[in-house]
């Protein structure tokens, strides 16, 4: 068994946060099945523009339905502090932190540094008080705060992942043409694969065949495609009949 999941995420995408948490939760099992997982920061706004899509909540019926799905999804993570930003549109252009993530991914040999920072950016954006990551000073503040080995909300960790000098270097790197091109190129790659939203998955199975998957709720199809054993939704008989 083997394969890979290339997962395209934007910090400003709630369901990107969800798939990130699910993949993190299952990382040992995925590893045991020889599945490599790689996260790729991309810009959802540019994916929408490039594919001709619009954020789902801009259509009133989808906005109303979306509240139900969001509530159900949040209920899957009882200890996760989640608060939707009051005006998501106005804080959705997370270009700078996405470029910073590319810089970190490229610069630090330990992949945990990138994963931890991505995790903390998601947390900062989606937990109250919803840090506005479109502002450079906030990105700096959040980078300075990332606890080393951040494991999720409530983990304030005394030791910080980055020194002040490292944060300066990350912000400088994030402003480089190379990182601008890298974020653009990553977004374009997903668009070329057919992306129209986030999270976007490009999954490659043992035989080298690749297929796209959209959303954080497609794991049954992903696992099936990868040939992994998994437990699907199984309807059981009514409780009183099971005793017959
Ligand atoms: N059912 C999917 C919904 C994912 C979703 O709504 N993603 C948003 C961004 S957070 C999006 O890009 N949607 C585009 C679309 O629905 O056309 C899931 O549970 O993950």
UniProtKB/TrEMBL annotation:
Reaction catalysis annotation: RX + glutathione = an S-substituted glutathione + a halide anion + H(+)
Gene Ontology cellular component list: mitochondrion; peroxisome
Top-level division of the source organism's lineage: Eukaryota
GO BP term, example: glutathione metabolic process
Cross-referenced Gene3D superfamilies: Glutaredoxin
Lineage of the organism: Eukaryota, Fungi, Dikarya, Ascomycota, Pezizomycotina
GO MF annotation list: glutathione peroxidase activity; glutathione transferase activity
Keywords on record: Transferase
Group of enzyme by EC: transferase
Organism: Cercophora newfieldiana
A Pfam family the protein falls into: DSBA
Similarity annotation: Belongs to the GST superfamily. Kappa family.
Domain DSBA-like thioredoxin intervals: 5-225
Documented EC number(s): 2.5.1.18
UniProt protein name: Glutathione S-transferase kappa 1
């Amino acid at each position: 068994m083997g394969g890979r999941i290339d997962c395209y995420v934007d910090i400003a995408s709630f369901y990107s946060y969800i798939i990130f948490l699910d993949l993190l939760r299952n990382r040992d099992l995925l590893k045991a099945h020889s599945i490599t997982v790689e996260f790729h920061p991309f810009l959802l706004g540019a994916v929408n523009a490039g594919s001709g899509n619009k954020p789902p909540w801009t259509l009133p019926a989808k906005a109303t339905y979306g509240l139900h799905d969001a509530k159900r999804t949040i209920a899957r993570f009882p200890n996760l502090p989640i608060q939707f930003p009051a005006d998501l549109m106005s804080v959705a252009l997370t270009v700078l932190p996405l470029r910073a993530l590319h810089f970190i991914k490229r610069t630090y040999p330990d992949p945990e540094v990138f994963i931890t920072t991505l995790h903390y950016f998601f947390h900062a954006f989606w937990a109250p008080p919803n840090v506005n990551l479109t502002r450079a000073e906030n990105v700096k503040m959040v980078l300075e705060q990332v606890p080393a080995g951040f494991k999720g909300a409530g983990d304030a960790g005394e030791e910080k992942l980055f020194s002040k000098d490292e944060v300066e270097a990350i912000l400088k790197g994030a402003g480089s043409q190379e990182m601008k091109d890298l974020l653009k190129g990553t977004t374009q790659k997903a668009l070329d694969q057919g992306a129209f939203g986030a999270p976007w998955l490009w999954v490659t199975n043992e035989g080298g065949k690749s297929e796209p998957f959209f959303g954080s709720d497609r794991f049954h199809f992903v696992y099936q495609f990868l040939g992994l054993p998994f437990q699907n939704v199984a309807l059981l008989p009514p409780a009183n009949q099971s005793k017959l």
